[in-house]
Amino acid sequence: MKGFSSIWCSWVQAYVQGSNVSIKVNDQLGSFFQTKKGLRQGDPLSPLLFNIVVDMLAIIVSRAKTNGQVKGIVPNLVEDHDMEQAKNMKLILYLFEQLSGLKINFHKNEILCFGQAKEHESYYSNLFGCKIEKFPFHDRRKNRKKDLSNWKGKLLSYGGRLVVLNSILSSLPIFMLSFFEVPKGVLEKIEYFRSRFFWQYDNHKKKYRLIKWPIVCQPKEQGGLGVQNLDIMLRKWLFKLCNEDGIWQELLRNKFLKGKSLSQTNKKAKNSHFWKSVMGVKDQFLNLGRFKLVSGNQIRFWEDIWLDNQALKDQHPNLFNIVRNKHATVAEVLNSIPLNVSFRRALVGNRLNEWSSLVARLTQVNLQEGKDIFVWRKYIED
Length: 382
What we know:
Structural class: mainly alpha
InterPro entries: DNA/RNA_pol_sf, RT_dom
Largest sheet: 2 strands, antiparallel
Protein name: Reverse transcriptase domain-containing protein
Organism: Paspalum notatum var. saurae
Radius of gyration: 29 Å
């Protein structure tokens, strides 16, 4: 399957089975003997062989998808509540164990069910031998209060409490907050507990806050203390979706974007809770940064920030009000001569001057092959 030659395989086999080792007992080396299998601890070949073997699992799953035994946009994920697919996936994992000699510890894994699949989560749990994982927002809030009350903040300086906040108390809820749009009341409670611990450190005594909490959460180079802002976790998903490639990016692009840019995509009623949550912060995310132009295929000409630090619709509102295609991409506009822009009225007076000025600026813009990049602004307003 991997295409390695027979001579290469014989080299690896000889290396694995042909080692001579000696055991040292009481500072005395015994006689050497030949091992039957296995590599020495720390051998640089070990991780390579492990990756080659594990990569076979992805190949087996991909072939099962081709044969129709498992389905889904990304075949490593079992889709919906198809029990037959779940059985096939379990069989594939069992065969991989037998072929590779690597045991999968199902009891160390957890299974998450969404939508209609939640009706069958007990079946899936018994089938795979995994625990059922939940998303307890309210339990999370109670745990934060308990964690904060257990720390003896009065024994710590401001610097010490800042270290506790960043290294422990802020990191505990990060996974949950970066995966779901947490109810506003839960988020406000968590922020209240964090702020109270930092400024007050005692549940029975009051102390004045010396500065607003949003300023405390800003980066140090911007005058803050670098406390992690829990409200922006979902925006990081959008940043990675725009700029990185991976299995989950492939899943979201195929399922939700479907060839469109992030700017052109809106949430729908039938979308998952996670995607609705992410789309709910899309406009805020786009306002926190700007696009670095490469090909122009992912950037809206009028509505996104790519030319200077303001969208063209805000720089030239008079032109935007009468343009026909308000959602055109930069590539659609610039890849034709003259520019592919149509207005509902003739351009005269100030509008003509604005358009002439904009066209002069656009002559300096060059499109290239590649993917547009989203970058954060250096300074973010409160």
